[in-house]
Design goal:
By secondary structure, the protein is mostly beta strands. It has helices spanning 77-82, 88-94, and strands at 25-33, 40-47, 53-59, 69-74, 98-101, 110-112. The protein binds zinc ion (ZN). Zinc ion (ZN) is lined by residues 13-15, 47, 49-50, 52.
Length: 117
Amino acid sequence: MKEDQAAAPAGRCICEDPDAPASGFDKRALGCDETGGRFADVSVERCRACGKLWLHYLVEDEAISRSGRWARGLISEGDATRMTPDRALMHLNSLDWRIVGGSYYAGSGGRRTGPFR
Ligand SMILES: [Zn+2]
């Protein structure tokens, strides 16, 4: 085995990668956020590698191509049990950073600090 295969940045897990596969997470669907006609899929995902909990918010307008985008932000165990779909976006935007991805970003997703819309 080559040395560099294990060289993930210190303290960083695959779950902080916007291209982390869905199979790396245990997903619990919370439902749909219909606020403002967004119809976003909201779920809580636990990373199978490090156990971190993420709040996942997915927006996709099937009528518009390349409109699929999602944001994933850390959430505590307690907040996760109380989280509801309509409060998910508020939680994500209250965090210092979040990870975004989806066809809208065309491979340029990643860590973001600004609000997610
Ligand atoms: Zn992880």
